[in-house]
Amino acid sequence: MAVQHRWSDAAARAAIARYGDQGVGEDLALRTYSARLLGADPELVLHGGGNTSVKTTVHGLLGEPIRVLCVKGSGWDLGTIEPPGHPAVRLEPLQALRVLESLSDEAMVAAQRQNLIDPAAPNPSVEALLHAFLPHRFVDHTHSIALLALADQPDAAAVCREVYGDRVALVPYVMPGFALAKAAALAYEAAAAGGNEPEGMVLLQHGLFSFGATAEQSYDRMIDLVRRAEERLARGERSLHAVAVPERPAPAAAVLPLLRGALGRAAVAAGVRPHWILALRDTPLARAISDDARLPDWATRGVATPDHVIRTKARPLVLPPLPPGADGPALAAWGRSLEQALEAYATEYRAYFQRQNAAAGGVKKALDPLPRVAAIPGLGLVGIGKSAAEAATVADIAEAWAQTLLAAEAIGRFAPVGEADTFAMEYWSLEQAKLGKAAEKPLARQVVLVTGGAGAIGAATARAFAAAGAEVAVLDLHQDAAAAVAASCGKRALGTACDVTDPAAVWAVVAAVAAHFGGLDIVVSNAGAAWTGPMATLADADLRASFELNFFAHQNVAQAALAVFRAQGLGGQLLFNVSKQALNPGPNFGAYGISKAALLALVRQYALEEGEAAVRVNAINADRIRSGLLDDTMIKERSAARGLSEELYMAGNLLGAEVRASDVADAFVALARMERTTGAVLTVDGGNVAAMVR
Fold it and tell me: Catalytic annotation on 592?
């Protein structure tokens, strides 16, 4: 896809007005506006990449003017950046540092922080000095895919000179930081001394800079320089060397749980948490590179720009082509090949670390040896992360790598930085700091499926698991309702319609969840409804309908989930909403209570049979929860029948307090965290002696 020119004078004026109302000056308003334009285009910037700046003036406490560099701060993404994302740093002290012969990373960061106008602001970009050393008011830096296809050539300088002439200065690859800032300033000044002031700067094997007197001029130059690169690439010729893959290869729902399980076992061996979230890209681009016979060679070349290595590692895991079919001996054999390939990857990563760490003086601490990208012929590219968001980010960058590589190969040879420079970036503390070190939430990396997810208990449960860090799939009979609850659980949550009384529909939805997240860890089988009436006159159809939803539907969900659990080999959890009716039946609730009693027996049977596979099976016994099952009408009828007010009826327990849907949700989360408990029934009813488990 070609880069888009998105500048709008009207939108720029609107940004000046909007930010002006917040006390932000025109320079920073336009800096924010054009930075967001760059960040919105994945052809230019991906997930925190790139950086932008403006040199302007602010006023101190006494009204004195202070020249500052407002430069992108750590933790901000250009696509969503706001004015605080460009913290102001005193410009003259930064520029004065250029006279130094060298400057350590620690001293550079300290100098930048010491000169922040707001001491509480985020750390300025690691390339802040590069921005400071250039004379231009506005400076933009991207990792344009088209530019990288030129800059990652063996003869990149000649190729870029052919495309740009003297419009750009060229800078050989230098590790970001003080040394790069000086090298870039010298390259710019040498080019300008020739009589033609450059409009931009190509950092070979790294990225593209543009600059100008105004935000619009710098932006225009960036887009034009990228378009020139695209025009050169358009003259290339791509060829395909596809490997043989079956006409109907094993589907993602069958393959990804195998990969997830293998990653989990490798993670345990490496001493890290076993659960990972996967994000599949099966686009034509992803298939073009994953299905190419040259991929094993390409995978060893490296990343498109060193900035990406902290998210993707230096190379993807290349797996064998998929077999046909969703199960059987062929898929089992492929799974064994997967384990071997993953073991070989980890062995090679450890050797890579040992080689480069020795060269670096042996001072680095090894990161885990697991891949972050897998390429599967017949399926596509898979991003691997600690969360769905992280996995999606990795998958996006993997596709950008594929696009860069294929474009580079079409005009020459993809030749990014070598192993030593890649290692230096991967283990650079200032890069690792971008990933953050915040403690993970207790259920992070867990994939949770909640049935009846749009009801009061289901929705509260889905949100409670999301708040505990889990990735959530919400199932409900109604698509819109499921989607609405999923949206409240986070951007990556999945909401889908499913009739849980239909076994085929359940298996299809569980397969979709496995394909979406890579697998499944916890099922909250919550869907249910009550049919009322005395048993002596109860219609046979009502009793059968109650069993279909309150018993057989739970069996449908459990069977489908267990198939995924077994493929992963990581254990799992089945959690059921049993209700107090299983233990303390009420008059005219026979259809409901008997089916729930059968469900309780099912819980115990699964606990008995699945413990050896590390699958925990537990239940919640809840009572008198305002929900679709116990709605306002029923509450009114039941309280009147007992001669109580509605408030007293709902609080009719030993604690004298109404039990809420959120209490049930918290209990489900608590059960999920009880790692040595199975076959248990946890009561959430405020205290009901008749329903106590004996």
Answer: yes
